[in-house]
Amino acid sequence: MNPEKFYITTPIYYPSDKLHIGHAYCTVATDAMARYKRLQGCEVMFLTGTDEHGQKIEDKAKGAGVTPQQFVDNIVTAPGGVLDLWKLMDISYDRFIRTTDGYHVQAIQKIFKQMYENGDIYKGAYKGKYCKDCESFWTDSQLVEGKCPDCGRAVQDAEEEAYFFRLSKYADRVQDLLENTGFLEPRSRVHEMVNNFIKPGLEDLCVSRTSFTWGVPVDFDPGHVVYVWIDALFNYMTALGYQNDEHHDLEKFWPADVHFVGKEIVRFHSIIWPAMLMSMNLPLPKKVFGHGWLLLDGGKMSKSKGNVVDPYLLSERYGVDALRFFLLRSFPFGSDGNFSNELLIQTINKDLANDLGNLVSRTTAMAGKYFDGVLPQEHRFHGEMDDELVKLASGLRDRYEDAMEHYAMHKALDEVFQVIQRANKYIDENKPWLLAKSSEDKSRLACVLYNLLETTRICGVLLTPFMPGSMEKLFAQIGAEEALRTWESAGQWALLPKTVSVHKGENLFPRIDMEKELKELEEVTAKAAAPVQEAEKVPEYISIDDFSKVQLVTAKILACDAVPKSKKLLRFTLDCGEGQPRQILSGIHEYYEPEQLVGKTVVACTNLAPRKMMGLESNGMLISAVKEEPDGTEKLHLIMLDDAVPAGYGLC
Ligand code: ME8
């Protein structure tokens, strides 16, 4: 029995750069699953969206000279953005959430407060490392060669007053969930989570930040914003109406049937997410499935490495369905897969042009040539010759279902293509062109073509979730009416009318000339990359009005000492010409000893909003030059003026 409801999600994407084909991989997989479930008659909720808060977005927006909201809008809703990409890729999502949507923001504030009130969130001080790219906190022992263990990039010291979630309290329950239920798949990821994260000791998780503002504000403690992952994970429920009145599907669809997520974010989904739900006494999702990465030249595709593949370019050249098919046919969903243009073209040529395309075009062409497109009533069945194909095609739906239920989409496709290959062999065995020569063999010829059409129909139904647009065209060519495109019909043989009308149409998947195509592809890719590099060189101008908003003054250092318990922070008492001293904290202890600095004249920005660090208020910022050292680290040099300049003078 199929469940009546099915709730499936993709991760919500960071709109910090344009999405690449690695992002499309997960969304296409989710779409195929959602379409498969709809085909089975389930009421499906397919959720996707964008995860729009966090320091990375704030920094990028600053760099681009726009507000964070303008920055994300430009990647999500502008032409060529995320919404357009999903439209192009035929993604049939039912709901799209943006974490900047008002209803979500308010719901997150309520959730945070409830966890604070139930005692699972408490206030403390965070000291450790932070990877801005992954928006992840790390302890020293978790770093790999001093770098972020997920992405290998440099981490920064993070030290601030913060709220913590009592993750440690849930360690045993989460371990039990992972080890003793089917919550996380593939199974190999269970060992990774338990051995790498739970067994070494699960520490409480820092769940608020104060060093930037682009996030959901903690409403009962201004200055704190909710850690972006807490904000992001709850999207799966707020999008259904949890803690808001925008939607009303929570009862119907929660708990989710499956969250599809990339392997690097399995940790968040299989440890932090269930622990937070346990804290809120909420039902857990039924499954988290961690898929592998699309690799290019052996490394994960990522914009910052400059090795991304553009899904727009590939869909334009080969069609959306060929691209969707390639992604799910070529790589087992749980494992990494090496993307290459050769593999893409090879897959299109072999499976789509040769196997499926040939089966359809040969069958429809012969029906046209020998019967003017309409098969006769009389079909002569030949047990020995027909049984194997008929049996294989009739049982296909069950084998396919078995694979799909285990999220093994490549296996389901393999089952379909075994039948398609068998059908092509059946043509060679039966030699319809010889049967056509004798009028006595016409009924046998009709039966052969009919068996081929039925096989194609069943395969077409089961390929619909993967290539919806092309399968509609296929059904039109083989004369399969709507009623013969259903899940029920894919489990039955001989549903096409005996006198079916066939229409040979356009070639569904034209063969590609590999050598010529690879050369052209190289040229277009190079051309497409060029304007981006040019564009990146264009400076982001600000107006003089923008500049004049920044109040820069000369400041004399009256006193300086280290902030207790902080490795980085120095506390400065400054004369900024205001009649009373001003206190500013600056994270430069690694570069200067306090006594070196007393008496020096420096530059301070005095109209930054006051901010608390380690319990002390900082009223501005000292200006430093950032110098990159030969080993790649950055060193700050305070801008110092000579003694001729007194304190309190403005800079222009
Ligand atoms: O992680 N191959 O967002 P994101 C396969 N906002 N999958 C890839 C990939 C590749 N080369 N590159 C990226 C986030 N992905 C969070 C999610 S959910 C509550 C918050 C996948 O835009 C990646 O593994 O960085 C992840 O599952 C998804 O794209 C979104 O990545």
- Radius of gyration, in Å, reads 31 Å
Low-confidence segments, given as residue ranges, are 531-538
Please give the largest β-sheet. 6 strands, parallel
How many helical elements? Answer: 24
Helix content range of the residues, please? Answer: 40-55%
Secondary structure elements and pairings:
Elements: E1 5-9, H1 21-39, E2 43-50, H2 55-64, H3 68-76, H4 82-88, E3 95-98, H5 102-117, E4 121-131, E5 136-138, E6 156-165, H6 171-180, E7 184-185, H7 187-198, E8 205-206, E9 208-209, E10 225-226, H8 228-233, H9 235-238, H10 250-253, E11 258-262, H11 266-279, E12 288-291, E13 294-296, E14 299-300, H12 311-318, H13 320-330, E15 337-339, H14 341-371, H15 383-394, H16 396-405, H17 409-430, H18 432-435, H19 442-463, H20 468-478, H21 487-490, H22 514-537, H23 544-548, E16 552-562, E17 570-575, E18 582-586, H24 594-597, E19 601-605, E20 611-613, E21 616-618, E22 621-622, E23 624-628, E24 634-638, E25 640-641
Parallel strand pairs: 1-2, 1-11, 2-3, 7-12, 11-12, 13-15
Antiparallel strand pairs: 4-5, 4-6, 6-8, 9-10, 13-14, 16-17, 16-19, 17-18, 19-22, 19-25, 20-21, 23-24
Helix pairs in contact: 2-3, 6-7, 6-11, 7-11, 12-13, 13-14, 14-17, 14-19, 14-22, 15-17, 15-19, 16-17, 17-19, 19-20
The structure holds ligand ME8.
